[in-house]
Amino acid sequence: MKLNPILTALSAATLGFLIGLSFPVQIAPQLPCYVLSWSGGGGDAASNVLGRLSWVPFVVSNNNNNSSGTAAAAAAAAEVMNQNKTTITASSDQVVTSSTASVAAAAPKLPPTGAERLPPNIVVSESDLHLRRLWGEPREDTPVRKYLLTLTVGYTEKANVNATVSKFSDDFDVMLFHYDGRTTEWDEEFPWSQSAIHVSARKQAKWWYAKRFLHPRVVAPYDYVFLWDEDLDVTFFDADEYVRLVTKHGLAISQPALDFARGKKSYEITARRSSGVEVHLNTTGGPGNCSDVHQRPCSGFVEVMAPVFSREAWACAWHMVQNDLVHGWGLDVNFWRCVDEPERQIGVVDAQYVAHRAVPSLGRQGNPETGGGGKVRARAWREYSHFRARMTNADRAAQREAAAAAAATSPPRSK
Ligand SMILES: *[C@@H]1O[C@H](CO)[C@@H](O)[C@H](O)[C@H]1NC(C)=O
Ligand SMILES: *[C@@H]1O[C@H](CO)[C@@H](O)[C@H](O)[C@H]1NC(C)=O
Ligand SMILES: *[C@@H]1O[C@H](CO)[C@@H](O)[C@H](O)[C@H]1NC(C)=O
Ligand SMILES: *[C@@H]1O[C@H](CO)[C@@H](O)[C@H](O)[C@H]1NC(C)=O
Ligand SMILES: *[C@@H]1O[C@H](CO)[C@@H](O)[C@H](O)[C@H]1NC(C)=O
Ligand SMILES: *[C@@H]1O[C@H](CO)[C@@H](O)[C@H](O)[C@H]1NC(C)=O
């Protein structure tokens, strides 16, 4: 009789859960690891189990001697489920031990969804966006770069895009999303283009591409992912220095400050401080403007125009990008959900700054016969209101579920 391996594993896990065993789990450095988190309130029929178990991938960095990063990832995984059944702690020798939930402990033995039929040692669940040769020894190919720059571009902005890419070193893999269908011209004019990834899909917006081509498992090797627009003036920007600063200040989500004198103004929080600071995290603005520093956009906020995500933050943010909402409006006020401490881990880099030239390139992508740029903008606003409504509903549903789970697990009152 051929048993479905995942069901076998699940029944083992469920059994373990019921008995309350705990297993130490070794996490190999730099290997993806799957934590199976229990989200059930307990006492459900077995048929419910599948729906209540979720895969939560996270990557353990091998040069991270600070266990809190690992613990935070694991804790976040547990927290997503909003349950007290899974307690994961990481010690400095990178052994993750599940103290109360054997479901979590047993999980790393299970392959990612879809790979159940394969022997685990052949499963490669991560990829990258690095070009390889078709010949030679694979391990002698040029190594995958440490960071990824993505730009959503049209050919008319080629001069600025070239200037932008020139500010990024060889430590970056480069990926261009073309919204105007013109790709071959780039290779003819710019040598760097020949080693860039080009994705061409007409008349789409940045977040449409990001959802489809920047899956967290595909960008997993990159420490930071830049999701930039094409119309930034980068005269006073250097990418390596930028990365050094966000690393130094522990910014998981960041953007370069904007020089309001040379470009479009936007939120006060993104304005460049000329006082010689390297980064800033908040603004108090004037009266009636950021009167509460703890509210977005006064802290814990960067715009969708030029965000830079750490690997972990992007793995979260990607999930928030909706499939049908292409303009991404409203994501910025929710980026805070993807870090532990938004007021410390989301910030604006003053020492490396840009100016927003605000070329209305996206507006031109509207069909003139149906209203052109005005209609594009109207859709962006409509998407913004959809997104807000979805987020509100999702928050409410999660709260209800948490409350129900808490009620189910609280000890029965004595008579
Ligand atoms: C990691 O930190 C521990 C103490 O927390 C220390 O004993 C150990 O030497 C460190 N390892 C490395 C590689 O820095
Ligand atoms: C680990 O990193 C966290 C945040 O980055 C920090 O608060 C903590 O002090 C660090 N712990 C050690 C032992 O370095
Ligand atoms: C979680 O579990 C621990 C130990 O099992 C217990 O001490 C703690 O009170 C629980 N917390 C909640 C919020 O139920
Ligand atoms: C691209 O930018 C670099 C750096 O600014 C510059 O040297 C080069 O001439 C530009 N290439 C073209 C074709 O304009
Ligand atoms: C704060 O005030 C400045 C000028 O007083 C304005 O330009 C800016 O848009 C305001 N920011 C917000 C978030 O309202
Ligand atoms: C604002 O950010 C600075 C660091 O840039 C920090 O020292 C300060 O505590 C923050 N203010 C508030 C109210 O959080």
UniProtKB/TrEMBL annotation:
Region Disordered, annotated ranges:
394-415
Q: Which InterPro entries match?
A: DUF707
Going by the UniProt record, its keywords in alphabetical order are:
Signal
Q: Which Pfam families match?
A: DUF707
What is the superkingdom listed in this entry's lineage?
Eukaryota
Keyword ATP-binding part of the UniProt annotation: no
Q: What range does the record give for the signal peptide? A: 1-24
Asked if the keyword Nucleus belongs to this entry, the reply reads no
Q: Low complexity bias located where?
A: 394-408
- Report what the protein is called: Uncharacterized protein
